[in-house]
Amino acid sequence: MKINQLETPVLTLDLDILEENFRRMDQMLSGTNMRLRPHYKSHKCAWIARRQMENGAKGITCAKLGEAEDLAQAGIPDILIANQVVTPSKISRLAALAGKCHLSVCVDDIENIRNLGTEAALAGNTIHILIEYDIGMKRCGVRTKEEVLALAHAVMEEKYLSLDGIQAYAGHLAHERNFDTRSSQSDLIEEDLRSLLAWLRENGIEIREVSGTSTGTAALRKKDSVYTEIQAGSYIFMDAAYAPLKPGFAHALHMQTTVVSTACGRVVVDAGIKSCGVDQGPPICVEYPDAEINLSEEHMDFAAENLPPVGSRLTLIPGHCCTTVNLHDKIHLVRGEDVVDCIPVTSRGKCI
User: Which DSSP letter does residue 142 get?
Assistant: First the structure.
């Protein structure tokens, strides 16, 4: 089958570009003490997660317990939930899942630590812990060294919890367009974390792992970075939101659309906000890269001097790859103009 035979709107993944993005990330981390723990939220596909592991990833990062369950079912041996799990039912599920893989979770609350310890003991499984340290995102995580130390002691008091490291994710810098700002703030974060680790060491706490970093800041990590794990996700696909930053990766994920009307003097295609995530901005049309795109539920439209024929195909670079993928059941794998396979978005809608 050829790409132009697919019913639209549909996502396609260029395998040649995907593999090149794998190589570029490998080169970026070569010669450093950092290992890749890519984020599952960008693709939510077990097939891709397995490919990342085969390509040398240390493990997989995810955002939700339901995603972690899917990953474990797919045979991923090392999974980090880069989030807090706090309700009794979810903690019970987490403790059970810890018997199927090396499972890590983030914490920033002592009572949550005690609850995790209780359920882990009941299940007889070890849950690995990362203490979340707020480095400027102001979402989750404690903000002082003293709070980190208190949480570390609380984890170490629990027989079935293992203190593995620090979660320090600078999501607020991921799409910072000013390179100097992005770079200087990343350097300050390194200094802050280095100081934290030294202080914890002086107080008897050794930290093995520091996990974090996005596609937009991965290239800024120096060879002697304090980080040991890189959680970049979008690097495999890229999208319109990351394009201005030029992080060193190519666009592998596209949406194929069909022109359904030009009757009003504008190009109208059959994809809207129900098929393309726009939370970080609109998509880019490959054939009309300067077009200002308007979106509604089922359509996109834009002005163009040369109107394409009704029924012709246009290719979009999604505005945000992560939320776009979560709107689709499957992704078609392509090489050149050939469709070579189709994979399910395994964890689409897994938000619990």
Answer: B
